[in-house]
């Protein structure tokens, strides 16, 4: 059963996203939402509702698609594969960013500067390429990045 998000968390999430026009969503928050993670589901439902009901544009990378499909494919979970494909490919809420040579070069510079792994560096470079104001993640290592605001789900009050 999902934990209920309290008023303070609702207010904080709204405040955090108030000035965000372009939000990059990392793989983990998407997994929490689609697979209904009890700890994060209510927070993610609110964030998805804000994306649905406002002019906020959400981005993610084709890398996200590769990351989120691994376990459902391994388990043979066609329903979950379909759910991810619907959200990332068929829905109106996300724009997927292709990994271009420019993004790959930017990722290399980010990896060198912040000592992030290649996938995380590609996510950050994709967010920067799309001029995102913020990145939603739960990866604390990303907080070293200074080119955009990093929103950690764990730091949002419950």
Summarize the SSE layout with pairings.
Layout: H1 7-18, E1 22-25, H2 27-34, H3 41-53, E2 57-61, H4 62-75, H5 78-90, E3 94-97, H6 101-114, H7 118-129, E4 134-137, E5 149-152
Parallel strand pairs: 1-2, 1-4, 2-3, 4-5
Helix pairs in contact: 1-3, 2-4, 4-5, 6-7
How confident is the prediction overall: mean pLDDT? 92
CATH architecture: 3-Layer(aba) Sandwich
The strand line-up of the biggest sheet is 3-2-1-4-5
Helical stretch count?
Answer: 7
In angstroms, what separates the terminal alpha carbons?
15 Å
Query: Looking at the structure, what is the overall shape?
Result: globular
CATH topology: Rossmann fold
Tell me the count of domains: 1
Order of helices and strands: HEHHEHHEHHEE
Proportion of residues in extended strands = 5-15%
Instruction: Tell me the CATH superfamily.
Output: 5'-nuclease
């Amino acid at each position: 059963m999902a934990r209920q998000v309290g008023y303070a968390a609702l207010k904080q999430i709204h405040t955090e996203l108030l000035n965000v026009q372009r939000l990059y969503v990392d793989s983990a928050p998407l997994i929490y939402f689609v697979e209904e993670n009890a700890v994060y589901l209510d927070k993610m439902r609110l964030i998805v509702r804000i994306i649905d009901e406002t002019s906020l544009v959400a981005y993610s990378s084709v890398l996200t698609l590769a990351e989120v499909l691994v376990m459902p494919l391994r388990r043979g979970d066609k329903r979950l594969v379909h759910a991810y494909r619907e959200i990332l490919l068929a829905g109106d809420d996300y724009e997927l960013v292709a990994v271009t040579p420019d993004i790959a070069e930017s990722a290399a510079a980010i990896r060198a500067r912040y000592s992030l792994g290649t996938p995380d560096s590609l996510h950050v470079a994709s967010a920067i390429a799309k001029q995102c104001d913020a990145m939603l993640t739960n990866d604390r290592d990303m907080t070293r990045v200074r080119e955009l605001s990093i929103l950690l789900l764990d730091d949002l009050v419950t």
